[in-house]
């Protein structure tokens, strides 16, 4: 606050890369999520965790349980492949859905992700609104084995868009002084797994 050259700051990520990786199950978070111009909070997962066995399918997996792209009320999920050569693909089929938070924008909501061998299902407050079929490949560069075999670690971000950001979801998405601060309150994150299903890797 005493540095007049710095207009905004954004928090570092919180991740379980070196503490917990998991394969399949149901993970959910109870949180108060910031909405509005400039806001870019997210709850997501990546493979290539430091604890779990290494897989080599030529890419690593990203699962976005939700991102808010500077929206007033919309949460958006996605799944991605990031290739070793730097190329990137994502699920862009016509049936991809976002979730419109219509009630209690300033309150807590439960965001859930169910991951099985065949599907990834997304939930808000107990309502399933999106299902990714892991038997349907969304690019022609590789298979879908990564979404079935790799383990993931969790990441929470409270990032912001600025006018200088390399990418913005729309032209006026950059934060303004009157928008700040954006606060992202997380009550808890929980993982559930059925007996003898999936895997959990934790730091010793």
Mean pLDDT: 92
Structure classification = mainly beta
**Parts with pLDDT < 50 across at least 5 consecutive residues:** none
> Could you say which overall geometry the principal axes of the C-alpha atoms support?
globular
**Structural Rg:** 17 Å
Strand-and-helix sequence, N→C? EEEEEEEEEEEHEEE
Estimated share of beta-strand residues: 35-45%
Distance between the termini: 40 Å
Say how many strands there are: 14
Q: How would you characterize the largest beta sheet? A: 7 strands, antiparallel
Structure, explained:
Strands 1, 4, 5, 6, 7, 8 and 12 form a 7-stranded antiparallel beta sheet that branches. Strands 11-10-9-3-13 form a 5-stranded antiparallel beta sheet, with no helix packed on it. It contains 1 helix and 14 strands; from the N terminus they run βββββββββββαβββ. The chain has 204 residues and is mostly beta strands. It is 2% helix and 43% strand. The mean pLDDT is 92. The chain has one helix at 146-149; strands spanning 14-15, 20-23, 25-32, 39-46, 59-67, 74-83, 88-90, 99-100, 108-115, 119-124, 127-133, 153-160, 185-192, 199-202.
């Amino acid at each position: 606050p005493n540095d007049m050259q710095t207009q905004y700051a954004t928090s570092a990520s919180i991740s379980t890369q070196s503490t917990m990786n998991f394969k399949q199950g149901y993970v959910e978070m109870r949180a108060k999520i910031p909405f509005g111009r400039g806001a870019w909070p997210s709850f997501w997962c990546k493979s290539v965790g430091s604890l779990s066995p290494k897989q080599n399918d030529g890419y690593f997996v990203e699962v976005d349980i939700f991102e808010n792209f500077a929206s007033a009320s919309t949460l958006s999920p996605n799944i991605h492949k990031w290739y070793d050569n730097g190329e990137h693909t994502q699920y862009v089929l016509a049936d991809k859905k976002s979730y419109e938070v219509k009630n209690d924008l300033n309150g807590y909501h439960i965001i859930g992700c169910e991951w099985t061998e065949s599907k990834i299902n997304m939930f808000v407050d107990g309502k399933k609104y999106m299902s990714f079929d892991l038997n349907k490949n969304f690019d022609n560069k590789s298979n879908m084995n990564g979404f079935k075999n790799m383990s993931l670690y969790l990441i929470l971000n409270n990032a912001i868009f600025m006018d200088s950001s390399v990418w913005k979801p729309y032209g006026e998405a950059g934060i303004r002084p009157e928008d700040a601060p954006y606060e992202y309150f997380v009550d808890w994150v929980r993982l559930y797994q059925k007996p003898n299903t999936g895997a959990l890797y934790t730091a010793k």
